[in-house]
């Protein structure tokens, strides 16, 4: 399953956005209002839960300076990645969007597609306010 958020213009340089997204402490600012739990587990790992959903642990998997930050599920039960893509527009503005990619059975895909789509759209919208 592949889901992509809308691209958003952010009045920050790619370096500022990249630095923000590499710090797992900052993801609390991007979370939707429906968050019921957020905990930092290490400098590369955090746990969060949305109301009515199980806890999800994400960890920093990979990054490409000023272009991409890749988070992945810490559990192998539901393997997926959440990638933030950053593109410079001008010296002080960028375009950014999130991509969710995971392999799920058809039933699981049907159940999680709408909440995940809304979740990454919210991350993208909230990234504009950093």
TrEMBL record:
Matches recorded under InterPro entries: START-like_dom_sf
SUPFAM superfamilies (alphabetical): Bet v1-like
Gene3D superfamilies: 3.30.530.20
Protein name in the entry: Carbon monoxide dehydrogenase subunit G
Organism of origin: Leeuwenhoekiella aequorea
Lineage, broadest ranks: Bacteria, Pseudomonadati, Bacteroidota, Flavobacteriia, Flavobacteriales
């Amino acid at each position: 399953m592949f889901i992509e958020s809308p691209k958003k213009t952010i009045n920050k340089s790619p370096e500022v956005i990249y630095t923000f997204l590499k710090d797992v402490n900052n993801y609390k600012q991007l979370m939707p209002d429906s968050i019921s739990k957020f905990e930092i587990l290490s400098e590369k790992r955090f746990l969060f839960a949305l109301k009515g959903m199980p806890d999800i642990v994400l960890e920093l998997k990979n990054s490409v300076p000023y272009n991409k930050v890749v988070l992945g599920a810490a559990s192998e039960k539901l393997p997926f990645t959440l990638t933030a893509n950053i593109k410079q527009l001008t010296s002080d503005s960028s375009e950014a969007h999130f991509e969710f990619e995971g392999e799920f059975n058809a039933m699981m895909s049907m159940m999680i597609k709408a909440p995940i789509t809304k979740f990454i759209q919210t991350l993208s919208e909230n990234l504009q306010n950093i």
